[in-house]
Amino acid sequence: MKVLANDGISKSGIEALEKGGFEVITSKVAQEQVANYINENNVAVLLVRSATKVRKDIIDACPGLKVIGRGGVGMDNIDVDYAKSKGIHVINTPASSSESVAELVFGHLLNGVRFLHDSNRNMPLEGDSNFDGLKKAYANGRELRGKTLGIVGIGRIGQATAKMALGLGMKVIAADSFIPEVDVKVEFFDGQSITTTIKTQSLESLFQEADFISLHVPAQNGYILGEKEFELLKDGVGIVNCARGGVIDEVALVKALDSGKVSFAGLDVFENEPKPEMALLMHSKISLTPHIGAATGEAQDRIGTELASQIISLLS
Description:
Blueprint (H helix, E strand, L loop, with lengths): L1 E4 L5 H9 L3 E3 L8 H7 L2 E6 L7 H6 L5 E4 L9 H6 L3 E4 L5 H17 L1 H11 L4 H7 L10 E5 L3 H12 L3 E5 L5 E7 L5 E7 L3 H7 L2 E4 L11 H6 L4 E5 L8 H10 L2 E6 L10 H4 L4 E3 L8 H19 L1
Helix pairs in contact: 1-13, 5-8
Protein name: D-2-hydroxyacid dehydrogenase
GO molecular function: NAD binding; oxidoreductase activity, acting on the CH-OH group of donors, NAD or NADP as acceptor
Family: Belongs to the D-isomer specific 2-hydroxyacid dehydrogenase family.
């Protein structure tokens, strides 16, 4: 039985699938050719990340497809309900990339409070001619310790982010429409741990209280942070989005950055992927990454082996 991992899969995932009797194809097939390739090669399992879209047209065109797998959490690039209605199993790996995404959140937070993203742009250009000027420009950094991090969406990735924030000595507040409270266990290298309970609150109160905001929500109809919401935020707030593009009004964000309402933003995802707006890419107050939240070797190993385990369980 053949598996097409169209957006790639880790070596450990390939090995696990091959050990289970599957043939793994890692050739990258163009979006418009995916259905033809599946049918011509008798592919039973299609694995994707965020790049390949699995919509109704592919599902209808591929009657031999048995499993669609998403390496990661969000499945907004798959017509999940429609696939299930056709008898196709739809799987994902919601727990595998949580720590990797959370660490990227803190990469952006630390970039923002110490201007690392902008300093790394300007030091190669002016470090030898304007060292003292740059030193002065980046002198007003802030500490994260003691500040309040507002987490919007306290699911697995939100909880992993909360653990890291607590480890840094931050106060953590959260808003979530579906989770009234959650126990967060912070584990240490020597086996010791502490557990704290976070009770969620209204989005409006979080916006008013948070020094920094991290978004961990799926794709939405409408913005979580639009022009009206930006007015509620504390002056000088920092915002990070490593969740999904389209949950922040990017025009309103740039306006808030320019006015000083928002001190910095960290963006891993964008409304117009793979062609983010130039106003974002060139902004000195935005720390930028190209949708790499789960792109660590450790996360990809976990994703690959978890997908393999689910596929083998379903089809063997």
